Amino acid sequence: MQLTNQDVIELTAWRRKLHTMPEVSGEEMATAAEVISFLTETRPDRVVSGLGGTGVAVIYDSGKPGPTVMFRAELDALPIEELGEPEHRSRIPGKGHMCGHDGHMATLAALGRAFGRQRPERGRAILLFQPAEETGAGAAAVIADEKFAELRPDYAFSLHNMPGLPFGHAWLKEGTANCASRGLKIVLEGKTAHASMPETGISPAPAVASLMPALTALSTGTVAGGDLVLATVTHASIGEPAFGIAPGRAELWVTLRTMTDGQMEALVVAAEALVRQAAAAGGLQCQMEYHDIFGHCENDAEATRLLRAAMDAEKVSHEEGEALRASEDFGRFGVVSKSAMFFLGAGKDMPAVHNPNYDFPDELIPIGASVFIRVARDILR
């Protein structure tokens, strides 16, 4: 089940092709079609499309009883204009693969090459190309899809490239791997007035001015201590862009972040209480709604052990590392399977993910694939 040099050349070319055609969350139709086309030559036993929207599951079945092992990559790109100048730069204005999901897809395609040549000895392997990771909606949509019931895995694995870590070096941690987060959109409604007579209106400006530091002050704890609570104001708008109108409406967007889902529940209660208090003090109506909801990602002990053993066998250096503040919706699969995710170093001097100059390092493809191939072989033999 080893990759050849020609495999690596072709997988690299395919990764770069994906890089030119980024599609954002929920719009990944062409990307999904490209995945199906590329893996057709591996003769999968079944392909399930339209999973949770645009998702694709590619199945390699031994035909014998045994566990189901799922490997997951993300289809979506970001609404970020690429500023780098590689020959394979994005051809879609305002969109780019600035998180490396193109490389993650190529890594899973490498498994497809391996399974195409040699099926698992027992059970089945599923390559899941999941939509809408960046919004936190994709994993939940896949699991809620009725087609997922027959695909439900016993084990689920994923990786994410990580700039800042030495190239090819991995972080793998049992327990919390990624924080929970959600976006809180606050709308405050008062009454507009002529700018010369602001006293005749009800302005939300004082409430916004008090809420920005009050919400931020909810932040406490550390990742190392396992008690991180973080509230980050990301957007604020008050009134109309006009000099003659005292404002009557405001919006405030805040990202809430915690180490666990339980901690998130407490943070939500505290944040909403502050909003209601500020609105009442200012005579305002308030509305609150949530977006981009991510549960925390929990690495199962057995799944983590299997990944660690695979890294040792493939001589991929690794350490425990620490949980990431950034969120990841792969944690949803931990509810239905034994799951684990690791972070693979993209190099200390690499631009950070979501940076407009970021480009996935192709040399990571065979490293990530070797770990996954080993895990599959260990479980499905």
How would you describe what is shown here?
The protein is α/β, with parallel strands linked by helices and 381 residues long. It is 30% helix and 27% strand. It contains eight helices and 16 strands. The protein has helices at 5-20, 29-39, 101-117, 138-144, 205-216, 261-281, 301-313, 364-379; strands at residues 46-51, 55-61, 68-74, 124-130, 155-163, 170-171, 175-178, 180-189, 193-194, 229-238, 245-246, 249-258, 285-294, 297-299, 318-319, 338-347. The strands form four sheets. It has an eight-stranded mixed sheet with strand order 1-2-4-3-5-16-6-15, sandwiched between helices. A hairpin with a 3-residue loop joins strand 1 (46-51) and strand 2. Helix 1 packs antiparallel against helix 3 (101-117), helix 3 packs across helix 8 and helix 5 (205-216) runs antiparallel to helix 6. The two termini are 12 Å apart.
| Strand line-up across the major sheet | 1-2-4-3-5-16-6-15
> Would you count the extended β strands for me?
16
* Structural classification: alpha/beta
Residue share in helix: 25-40%
SSE order, one letter for each helix or strand: HHEEEHEHEEEEEHEEEHEEHEEH
β-sheet strand percentage: 25-35%
Distance between the termini: 12 Å
Q: Average pLDDT, to the nearest integer? A: 97
C-alpha-based Rg, rounded: 23 Å
Q: Can you tell me the residue ranges where pLDDT is under 50 for at least 5 consecutive residues?
A: none
Tally the helices: 8
